[in-house]
């Protein structure tokens, strides 16, 4: 058992980046993980540890507080501080959940409260408390058409569908446009919601090769013919997880190839409004074959479980509406009503601008802390950090979790066994910029100690 004055488990803190208190916590987590500290081992008193380390007492107090939050240590009055016997609790710093940060300069909870209260006063209770099965009311579809116009021309309402989030609309597209055992083509690293959806509906996924500009048209043609696929899934703007933005020229090449092959395009486009000047959407380049899905959850808040779909024509929209009736039934009337009011008033645009400003600030924090070589844009909600092959991203994610940090390894996004090694870091889930800095500094510390990870592979 380690004695109360023993700090041999602490490495040279000067060699680790980040705040000193986090260095102590990370070292404690590592020592418990590798067995240098055992459950029940007693730690030095805080004053003694501060003296041994040559730091002030406040630093050690803050480190112990964070370690207790992570369930690494516990204290008993009169006896001291001991290493806990259980596993660390769930990470307290979340870089895995890809949600928008609180918009800069806007009290979003306050807007939600007043918005719901106002909606209840102005709207018919019967309308809000009834079933609204299908594609949405004409007013809701018109609001959706206005929102979707950012990706192209204003659409007739009979081509617009309202759904309870992007996943519900993607489910409806998959069910209406494919059959069991059909193959859907996608990037080798793609949205995990699609992977889960394919498994749940017994559809297959096949990866299409890419290069620096995104999916390759020649590989798309080969994959489509090899698998007999009829549907292509794309997330071309701030792609999840790689944060890449497909250039216009490549989009046009893929649109021509999809036309040649007779492919239906499913364009998942949750992040478009975070960019000041995004390339044209496939909805504009290939409207006759594109199902375009745009959710409010990624540019406003997950609180609004509302998304809009543009279908190639009215008949396709009817097929989607039928699939919605058979799965999620409808979009929630209260949330959809509030979302549409914010769209009509312009408040949705103001909130999105606030989210964009906060996302820009958080991307700048990441640039100042992490080593160069990652993929990001000025206003994205996430970034992609490539890794050298010496350490798989899943192993690094396990190490991070033991230190109280949640990150998303490439394996969570992989279609098949051949995929790039790296991490997706979501920047919006931490409650403020200071907590984000702590999380990124902790990750930088982990990366600096990983085998072969002194520099990311560019």
Plain-language structure description:
- By secondary structure, the chain is of the alpha/beta class.
- It folds into three domains: 13-83, Winged helix-like DNA-binding domain superfamily/Winged helix DNA-binding domain (Arc Repressor Mutant, subunit A, Orthogonal Bundle); 93-101 and 350-449, Aspartate Aminotransferase, domain 1 (Alpha-Beta Complex); 128-345, Type I PLP-dependent aspartate aminotransferase-like (Major domain) (Aspartate Aminotransferase, domain 2), CATH 3.40.640.10.
- 42% of the residues lie in helices and 14% in strands.
- The chain has 16 helices and 17 strands.
- A seven-stranded mixed beta sheet has the order 5-13-12-11-10-6-7, with helices on both faces. A three-stranded antiparallel beta sheet has the order 1-3-2.
- Helix 8 (192-201) links the parallel strand 6 (183-187) and strand 7 (204-208).
- Helix 7 crosses helix 8 and helix 14 (347-369) packs parallel to helix 16.
- The chain is globular.
- In the C-terminal section; belongs to the class-I pyridoxal-phosphate-dependent aminotransferase family.
- Keywords: Aminotransferase, DNA-binding, Pyridoxal phosphate, Transcription, Transcription regulation, Transferase.
- It comes from Mesorhizobium atlanticum.
- This is PLP-dependent aminotransferase family protein.
- One of its GO terms (molecular function) is pyridoxal phosphate binding.
